[in-house]
Structure formats: structure tokens, C-alpha cells
Amino acid sequence: MKTQIAGVIIMYGLMVLLAIPLGRYIAKIYEGKKTWLDPVLNPLDKIFYKLSGIRAEREMNWKQHLLALLTINVVWFLFSMLILMNMSWLPLNPDGNPSMSADTAFNTTISFISNTNLQHYAGETGVSYLGQLVLMLFQFISAGVGMAACAVVFNAMKERSTEKLGNFYYYFVRSCTRMLLPLSVVVAILLAFNGSPMTFKGKDQLISLQGDTVHVSRGPVAAMVAIKQLGTNGGGFFGANSAVPLENPNYFTNMVENIGIALIPIAMVFALGHILNRKRFAWVIFVVMTAGFLCFVIPAIYFESKGNPAIANLGVGQQLGSMEGKEIRFGSPATAYWAIVTTTTSNGSVNAMHDSLTPLSGMFTMMGMMVNCFYGGVGVGFLNFYIFIIIAVFISGLMVGRTPEFLGKKIEAKEMKIATIVALLHTFLILAFTGLSSHMFAGDPKTYAAWLNNPGHHGFSEMLYEYTSSSANNGSEFGGLGTGVPFWNITSGIVMIISRYIPIIGPLAIAGILARKKYIPESAGTLKTDTGTFGIMIFAVIAIVAALSFFPALSLGPIAEFFSMK
Amino acid sequence: MKQHILPAIRLTAICIIFFCVVYPAFIWLVALASPGHGDGERVSVENRVVGYAKIGQSFTEDKYFWGRPSAVGYNAAASGGSNKGPSNPDYLKDVQSRIDSFLLHNPGVKTGQIPSELVTASGSGQDPDLSPAGAYIQAARIAKARGISQDKINALIDRHIDKPLLSLMGPEKVNVLLLNIDLDKLK
Question: Which of B174, B82, B170 is nearest to B124 (CA)?
């Protein structure tokens, strides 16, 4: 067990050590400063701008940014629906997989353009290689959109008064070509050399050692897995995601993939420090995020390593911890660690079946998604955190009796209204839809019997997890839930689409409105935002708004299950 | 909106070229130099391909080491776990029957000695590995079925233990397929 704990600690340390220089690099690319990749990437970017007819130097205000962002997403939606519903006869389909039904295609399309990657299909049988490649495209560009939106907000937070907040396409293209692409190439090559396939041949057939006929699914796995980890996407090539040996062959690849999950989200925080030249403020944010992360990850590792008490009652040894749904090559601590990293960020790739986690670990994964900003998704993680900063500034301002100011800008009623709506929307969507599905199930358990794979409290947790994951744009699942039916496809699709765009529109609007306001230089009376006290304030706001509002629902699910097990 | 539509379509087209074609083609080319040439690493016995080194197989005969239970019957074209919750009574019955069956095939083993990995399903349904304890506990049965001394079997397991990464990170494990291939060669 010692080496397993050591593995987790080293993994976390490496991730932060890599994120610090990456943050500096991200700041440079958003500010258009020189970097060592310029000789290769400057011409590449020029091709992008030229062929798309984009004038990258034309500055936009926040409304134009939003318009550009939403328009391109509409184009993607139509393109994805077209491909997914016609895959069966299009090229690159060696396994002869079928096209998707309209409702599954709707869910999958929303899921991938919203950076969620909830999968109501299994990669081996549900999509062709062309489908996989198109979904991989969205893993790049949906992440690029989130990062571009975040870059606009960074720009708006600078000390000045302006309407002009840079060019959306400029931020978008640079996010894709200068961050996601080079990092993906590195990770994909590491994966390919450790045993992940990268081929366009179809299934292999062979006779096993014992004499059974076996079919082995393959495909362009390495390329897709790299970007699914780095872009906080999470949509795996195979049904069981990174638990599958070909998708995550050994402990080393597990470390690479796991570091890939939160690398850019953490680096974005450091990038903020460089762009605003407020490094202390960035560290306060990082420490608050880390404190929240540790609150989830330490108990999760403890409970998974301790094992399942119900299995202990049967008398077998659990030296390795709770092993249902886990893989030997990763072990319980690294699996619990992955489960928390993937849910606190909005990644959603899994290296074990979350449905089989012990009750409280399952709860901590859900809480990670309910908070959704302890590191959070690429770009959007910080946007969520930004909302909580605004609320914290406002409440602190009221407490000390001063006009709330944030980085030299007054926060007034309009901004607060937007922030509150965004903060409460997440809670509302999760609880309302879980309520709806529970009501339907309880009213007619026979008709909906196929929904739940587990009875009682755990069955409720399966539904709660599904909507939490959809609303957090996470994409992991309690996989036992029978989601391949229109009800789940459509409702989770609606939740994903609302909770993708509102939490981008809200912060962008607030940042845009604030940027236009008069800049008031800091004085002795200004509320200091780069102090420990303010950090504690943000943490308290997050705990109250995001975590406590879910307490009743969590009591019915995982907490009740925990106490029912002896 | 109008002024953004055309750039959006054109930009999407270029993204398709770079991220759907150029990027995967480049990785594909590089992967040709990898150990399995990008097709996955196969294992052969006497020139017959018997499996992929990294994908577990079903072993049910007493003379082989068994891998972990699989929710998909080791189907390498449809991965998946059981997705059973920890307190599910039906699931606990399944585990109990796996324990009973293991005890039946391995006389002399006590319940408390069975590592839980041998009675719980893996996440992928293709877990290729066991912990060393999961292999040693089966040595007596295999020795009897094959008429080889148990010491030889134990020595074989010793040789097959993969140490943690850099002897520092992660668990010890044994690859069941590679172990069974060498087991067949044992006299």
C-alpha cells in the first residue's frame, strides 16, 4: 500500500510542478508575446485565419464575443448531428457499426459540443471510426471555446476602462493550436509507445490460450485518449473508458492521463496571475481550490483503501481495498484519486466504475461536480470560480459596510443578479430533474424498472449522479443507470445545453460590464482580495451555496446507504 | 449573427482538416515505430497468436491461473464493469457464490485467505492482472491438476511479479496470460 500512496502523492506533485511553467506559457500566448513554438505555430495560425476569412486583430466587446461563440456552436451542432446519424454508410466503418438514433445523436452531440462527454453509447459498438474522429474534433474545439471565454474574462479583469476585449477567434485558435495540440501530440505518443493502439484496422479475431474465439476492438485510440484527458472532455474510445487496458495500459500511462486531467485547469489559474500581474491573488485562488480538492480526495482514498464493509462481512480479505469495478494495475488509492480529480475538474473520464465506489467516495465524486470549480474544466472551471468570487466580494463588502469593489471595479445590483442566477441554476437543474425522475420511478416502478441497476438508496444516487454530471458538464456516470432511452437522452441533453452556455454567458457578461466601468485605484479602504481572509470567505461561499444546498439530496442517497451498511 | 456564420463554417472546416486528419495521421505515423506498430501488442505461442498482452482472457480450467471475474465474460469487443453498488443484496449473493465456487475448486483454502479481487469484477471486464496474492492462492490447485510440485509453481509466480513503477509507485501485479503461457511450458 505504501508504494500506492507514494504514487498518488508524486502524481499530484508532478501535476502542480508542470502547471506552474505552463501557466506562464498560457499567459504569453493570450497576450500575444513571443514563445519558443512561434516559428512553427505562427504560420499555422496564419493559415487558420486566412482560410476562415478572420481578422484576428479586430477587437470585440463582450456581446460580439458571445455572438461569435454561440454561432460557431450552432454550426458544430448541425455538423455533428449529420455525421452521427449517417455513420453506418459513411467511410471508416470497418466494424459495420450502425448510425445513431435521433435522440441518442442529440444527446451525444450536445454532450460533445458542451465539453461534457456523457456517453449514452459504447464506443466499441455505437460509433464508427469516422464518428470517433468527429467526436475527437469536438474534444479539441469545445475545450478551445471554454479557454477562449476564460481568456476574454482575464482580459476584462485588467486595470482599465474599456469595451474592447480582444478577438474571440484569436483566443480560440491559439488555445487549440498552441496548447491543446502540442500537449496532445506528446501524450498520444507516450500512450502509443506504452501499448495503446493507433490503427484504422477493424476488430481482430483470435483463438485464446484456452481455445475460445475472441474479438478485440481497436482503432485510433491513442490520439483520442490524449485530447480527452487534456481538454477536460472525458469521452473514452471504449465503453469502460480509461479502465480498458488498451486505453490506459499501465501505471505510467495512468499517471500521464491523470496529470493531463487537471494540468490546464490549474495552469489557467497561474496564467491569471501573470496576465493581471497579481501572482498573490492567483495563489489565493489555487490554495482555496486545493483545500477543497483535499477535502474530497483524502477521505475518498481512505474509504476505497479500507474496502467495502459488506464484502468484509463475507469473510474475504481486502488488503487491496474495495476492488469491485477497479483494475489491479492501478490499485485503490490511485483509482480513488482519479475519481476525485476527474469530478472536481469537469473531465469525467474514469479508470474504474464509479457506480461501484463505496457510498461516501461516491458522494465525494458527486460533491466535486456540485461545486464544479475546485480546478474545474479548462477555462470554464475558472469562470465558475469567478462567479463565487463576485458573490464573496459582495457579501464581504456588505459585512464591513463598504461598496463592494473587485479589482478596482464597483460590483452593483446587475452583476450580482447575474452571478446569483448562474450560481443557483446548477443547483436547480440537478435537484429539479432528479426530483422529476424520482417521481416518475416511484409512481410506476414496473415501467421504469430497467432504469436502475441497484435498489434503494443507491438507485437514487444513480439518478442524482446522472444529472449532477450533466449539469457540471462532467460526463462520468454511475454506469448502471439505463440511459439509452429517449427520456434520459433528452432530459440530460437539455440539462447539459443549459448548464454549458449560461455559465459562460453569465461570467462573460459580468466581466464585460465591469470592464466598461470606471477604474477606481486601490486605496486603504479597498477590500483586499489577495489575502487569506478573502480566501476563507470564498471557500465559505462555495461551501454554503454549492455544497450545503445539496445536503438533503445527498442524505437520501450516499449518506443513507453508508449508514445502512454495517 | 450574419457576419459570424461564414467565418464559423470556414473555421470549422479548417479545424476538421487539422484535428480530424492531420493530427491523427501524424500520431498514426509515429505509432508505426512503436512495439505493436500501432495495432496492439500480440502474444504468440509456437507461431500462433493467442492474445493481446494487455487484455485479460477467460480461464476456467483448473490447470490454469484464473483471472478476475468479468461482468462481460472477457469480451474484448464490449468492455464494462458490473456497476453493482456496494450494498446491493443481489450483488452480495453473486460474490458469495463466487467464494463458494472458489472454495470448491481449491480445497484447503480458507475464506479469509481469498483476496477480494478474485471474487469482484474488474472495471473493464478485461483486467489482465492479479495481485501476487491472487496468484499464490491458486498454486496448490494448479500443482495438483498438473502433477507438478507446488514449489515450482510458486517459483514461476515469483518470476512473473511486476514490481511497482521504478519500485516506487503503484501496486505489484502479475499478468495472468503471460503466466499461463509459461505455465504450459513448465515440466
Answer: B82
Helix (H/G/I), strand (E/B), else coil: A13: helix
- For residue A408, the Cα-to-chain-centroid distance in whole angstroms is 31
Of B8, B27, B81, the CB nearest to A223: B27
User: Rounded to an integer, what distance in angstroms lies between the CA atom of residue A161 and that of residue A214?
Assistant: 66
Domain extents in chain B: 1-40, 42-185
| The C-alpha cell that represents A549 in the structure block | 444546498
In the block, cell 461501484 appears at: A356
Q: Return d(Cα A471, Cα A429) in angstroms, integer.
A: 7
User: Contacts of residue B137 in chain A, CB cutoff 8 Å?
Assistant: none
CA–CA distance, A335 with A301 (Å, rounded to integer): 8
pLDDT string in tens for chain B (187-residue length): 678 899 999 999 999 999 999 999 999 999 999 988 889 889 999 889 999 999 999 999 999 999 999 999 999 999 999 999 999 999 999 999 999 999 999 998 999 999 999 999 999 999 999 999 999 999 999 999 999 999 999 999 999 999 999 988 999 999 999 999 999 998 7
Q: What DSSP line would sit under A262-319, residue for residue?
A: HHHHHHHHHHHHHHHT-HHHHHHHHHHHHHHHHHHHHHHHHHHHH--HHHHHTT-B-T
CB-closest option in A52, A329, A454 to B84: A454
Taking the C-alpha atoms of residue A469 and residue A354, their distance in angstroms, rounded to an integer, is 12
Optimal mutation site among B96, B116, B163, interface A, most CBs of chain A within 10 A: B116
- Chain A hits for B11, Cβ within 8 Å: 48, 52, 54, 72, 169, 173
Closest-CA residue to A200 (of A96, A129, A136, A132):
A129
H/E segment holding residue A429: helix A413-443
Prediction ipTM score: 0.95
SS3 A216: strand
